[in-house]
C-alpha cells in the first residue's frame, strides 16, 4: 500500500513537471551539470541562458544545472568523486584538471567533442594531462601592469608596449622614482593579501620570466635546480626586495590602492579592467607584465568544463559542451563579463576583443605570453607549497632556504604518490 | 563540569522519587541506556567512529583523490611528524686552518642541506633551529619542523589567551553584575562580539592592525606623540601571535562572561553582608568571598577555554595564513593544510590523532590539578 502511494505520488510529480516544462518527449534524458557559484553574477546568468538555449534547441537531452558555493567547490567535488556522485558535466579551475584526470574521474575530450571546436580554441582554454585534453573553457584572463598616463608623464617613465615591455631594471627604476617622490607610500599594488591560487597564478609567471619554474616540465617529478637554482634565487631576491624597500605593501588591508590613487602601478588580472577603466577612464594605461629576462610571462587557464567518467550520456554532455564552444556562445560570455574569449572567431564577434577592439591587447597578451600552470596531478601540492614559500620570502625568510624547503616538500610528495603517473 | 552537574541532578531525581521507585522498581539500567541512546549514537557516529577511522587511516598513505591503491605504511606518518634529531657542525676553515668569516664577522658553516642530503641517516630531516657553542653550532633537526613550530605556537596561544580571556571575562562579569538601570545594554554590548561571525571579526581586526592605515597604530602614534613607531602587528613574527591572542580574547570573552555572571549571581548576598560586618573592604570581599564562590565556575571556564583555544584555526586562516614565517601556524591549521589543501589525508589524520591525545592529556592533568586543590 505504502509503495503504491509513493509511486502514485511520483507519477503525479512527474506529470506536473512534464506539464510545466511543456512538451518534453519521453525520450529526453536528463544530464546533470555542476558549476561554482562565483561572485560574478553575469557569468552565471550567461551560463544559465546558454543552458536554456541548448535545452530548447533539441529534445534529446535536458541539462539540469546545480550551483555549488565557490568557497567549498573543490571540496564538494572531491567528496562527490569519493562517493561516486559526480554529475555528468562540471566546471573546474584549470590547474586542478590534471589531478581529477589522473584520479580517473574525467573523460578525455578528443573524439567526444567535435575536432573543429577543439582546434578553434586558444591553447590556454584547454586543460591537458599527458597530452590529452580533459577540459575546455569559454574564457581566459590575463595578467597586466596597470598604470595611469598622467603618472608616466609626471615621472618621465616610458610606456611599456607589447613589443617592448619593461625590463626588470626599468621596473625597479620606476619603483625607486615613484617611492622617492613621496606621493606613493607603496607604489606597486600586487594583491599580496589574496590567498590560495592567486600566489601561483600571479607570482609563478614572474619566476618563469626569470628562467626558473615550479617543477621540471620535462619529467614532472623533480624540482631540484629548477625552482631553487640560480634563476629561482634571483627571483626570490627580487621578490623579497620589493617588500624590503617598501615598494609593495606586505599586508595590504584592501584591494583599492590603485583605484583610490594610493598606488601608481597595479599588477593584477584583466578582470579588474572594468573597475579600473570606470575609475580612470582615458588616463588608464594597460601595459604588459615586465620581462625579467626570459620574456614576459602571464598565467593561463581559468574555469573550464569537463565530462566525467561516470556520466551515462557522454554524447549528450559532449553535445552541450560543443554547443557552449560555438563562437556566439563564447562571445556572449565575453560581452557580458568582459573576460577574454577563448577563440579567435568569438573574439571577432565582441566589441572589446576584435582585432581593432580597445581591449584586444589582453587577447594578444594571452596568446603570446601565457604559460599554463604545470599540467600535473601534483599541482595542488605545488600550488600550496609555492604559496607558503612565497609568503615566507615576502616576510623575510632566507631565500635559498625557502626555495630548498619547497623543493623538498614537492619532491617528497611526488615520490609518495609514485610519480603521479609520470616515470620517476 | 557538565558531566558532574548531570550526575548531581540525576541523584536528586532518584532521591525525590525514591518512594515510588521502591514500589514500582522500573528497570533502571535499561531506562538510563534508553534515555542516553540518542546522545550516545550521535557521539558514536560523529566522534568515536571518525576518530577510529582517522586512527586507522594514519597508518596508511590514503590520499583524498588518487587512483593508487591505499597502502599500509606503518608508523611512517608518525615518524615524519615527530622524529627529531640533532647534529654538531664545525665551522669551515680555509687551507691555512683559519676559520672563514663572512663580511659581518660571522663564522661560515657547511650548507646544512648538502650535509643532510649526503648522509642517509639524516634523510628527510630539516633544520628546526640552531644554537652556537663557541665555534661549534648545534643544529636541532626535525622531519616536519612546521609541525613542531605549530605545537609551540599553539601552546603559546593557549598560555597567553586563557588567562587574558578568563580575566577579561571575570572583569566584565563583575562590571555588569550591578543593579543599575540600563545594565542590559552593557550586557548586550559586551556579548555582541560573540554573536559576530569570527571571519568578519578577523577581517575587521586586520584593518585595525594594518601597519600604515590601522587604527591601533594611529592611536599609539598620537598618544605617544610619535614615539612609538608603526608596529607591523600581523607582519612581524614577534607580534603576529600576540595580536591574534588579543583579538581572540576580545571576541570570545563574552561567553565566559555570562558563565561568570551566573556564578556571581549564585553567591549568596548574606556572605557579603557577613564579610562587611567583619570589616572587609571591596578587595577583601573579592578575594575571600567572590573568588572562593566562583571556584567551580572558574574550573569549568578554564578547562573549556583551554580546549577551545587549542582549536585555533579561523583567525589564523583569515588573518595571517600561518605566517609570517610560520609564526602563527597552529596544529589545526597545519592539519587542514596538509590533509585537505595538500590532499594528504593520512598525514592530516596522524596530526589529529596526536593532537587529540595531547588535548586529552592536558584536560586530564588540569582536572587532576583542580581536584587536588579541592582535597587540600
From TrEMBL, chain A:
Domain of life where this protein originates? Bacteria
Record's InterPro entries?
Answer: SBP
Q: Which Pfam family name is an example for this entry?
A: SBP_bac_8
| SUPFAM superfamilies given in the database record | Periplasmic binding protein-like II
Signal peptide span per the entry?
1-26
Give the UniProt keywords, A-Z.
Answer: Signal, Transport
Q: Which family does it belong to?
A: Belongs to the bacterial solute-binding protein 1 family.
Q: What is this protein called?
A: Extracellular solute-binding protein
Q: Which organism is it from?
A: Amphritea pacifica
